[in-house]
């Protein structure tokens, strides 16, 4: 294919990086992502590099499933750890394409992440392998762009149940947020997302946590059904010494 192709002459469809992009039955999509995170907490920092692969498959009309797995390298002070992250499996359903007659899309989803790999760090949730079995449900509602110079926008809500670990108890987390993608032209688009998290207590005597995460990104169509993705953002937490995270990622999304 031609890398960095010229602008397509007409609008064909929203990019494969669009939040509401839905796979046709039997279609496949592969996400390859390289990410970096730096977490500052009370003067100490945690740095992590991660390669993550996500495979999506169109099960049927309005249905798709995904599976993801990562490889990470973590460093905190004199501690180092490398290994596989716990896998994540999910399913997504397009519940409506014209909600309330307003051309609104409604997607519902669920995920399950089993604790398969042991962390040498006593299965701490701060390690590469989180040490807990998690599952959750959520929904995304919004409108998809129909041409260039338009926004895809949406709001989402989710609840996640975090299993107990060797160093903590189970917890329930709630998330609310919004996202958008602006199509500059048929090749380039800009992404933005903001998310508020209400995180349950992870340990007896510990504190609940409120997190806020905001990010911006740039996406570019490299070839038909092949997109470049990039993201830069930060997150803050109210608990554990008001930690702050800075994260960035770059990746490719292939529609097969």
How would the blueprint of this fold be written?
Elements: E1 28-41, E2 44-60, E3 63-76, E4 79-84, E5 88-99, E6 104-113, E7 134-143, E8 151-162, E9 171-183, E10 188-199, E11 209-223, E12 226-237, E13 244-255
Search tags:
twelve-stranded antiparallel barrel, globular, disordered N terminus, mainly beta, 62% strand, 256 residues
Task: Report on this structure.
There is one protein chain. The chain has 256 residues and is an all-beta fold. 0% of the residues lie in helices and 62% in strands. The protein has no helices and 13 strands. Strands 1-2-3-5-6-7-8-9-10-11-12-13 form a 12-stranded antiparallel beta barrel. A hairpin with a 2-residue loop joins strand 1 and strand 2. It is globular, with a radius of gyration of 19 Å. The relative contact order is 0.18. The N terminus is likely disordered.
Number of helices: 0
Distance between the termini: 14 Å
Q: How would you sum up the major sheet?
A: 12 strands, antiparallel, barrel
Strand content: over 45%
- What is the number of beta strands? 13
> What are the segments in which pLDDT stays under 50 over at least 5 consecutive residues?
1-9
Label the overall shape.
Answer: globular
Q: Look at the helices and sheets and give the structural class.
A: mainly beta
Mean pLDDT value: 85
Strand order of the largest sheet: 1-2-3-5-6-7-8-9-10-11-12-13
Instruction: Provide the succession of SSEs.
Output: EEEEEEEEEEEEE
Task: Provide a concise account of the structure shown.
With 256 residues, this protein is an all-beta fold.
């Amino acid at each position: 294919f031609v890398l960095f192709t010229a602008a397509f002459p007409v609008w064909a469809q929203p990019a494969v990086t669009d939040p509401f992009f839905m796979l046709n039955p039997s279609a496949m999509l592969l996400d390859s992502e390289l990410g970096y995170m730096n977490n500052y907490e009370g003067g100490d920092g945690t740095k992590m590099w991660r390669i993550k692969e996500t495979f999506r498959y169109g099960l049927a009309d309005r249905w798709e499933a995904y599976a993801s797995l990562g490889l990470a390298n973590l460093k905190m002070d004199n501690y180092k750890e490398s290994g596989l992250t716990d896998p994540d499996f999910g399913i997504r359903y397009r519940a409506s394409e014209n909600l309330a007659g307003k051309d609104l899309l409604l997607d519902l989803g669920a995920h399950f992440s089993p604790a398969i790999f042991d962390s040498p760090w006593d299965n701490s949730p701060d390690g590469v392998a989180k040490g807990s079995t998690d599952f959750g449900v959520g929904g995304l509602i919004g409108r998809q762009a129909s041409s260039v110079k338009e926004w895809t926008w949406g709001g989402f809500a989710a609840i996640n149940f975090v299993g107990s670990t060797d160093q903590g108890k189970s917890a329930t987390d709630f998330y609310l947020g919004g996202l958008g993608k602006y199509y500059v032209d048929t090749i380039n688009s800009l992404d933005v997302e903001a998310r508020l998290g209400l995180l349950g207590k992870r340990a007896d005597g510990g504190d609940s946590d409120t997190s806020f995460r905001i990010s911006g990104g740039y996406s570019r169509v490299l070839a038909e059904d092949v997109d470049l993705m990039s993201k830069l953002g930060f997150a803050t937490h109210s608990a554990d010494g008001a930690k702050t995270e800075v994260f960035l990622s770059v990746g490719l999304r292939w529609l097969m």
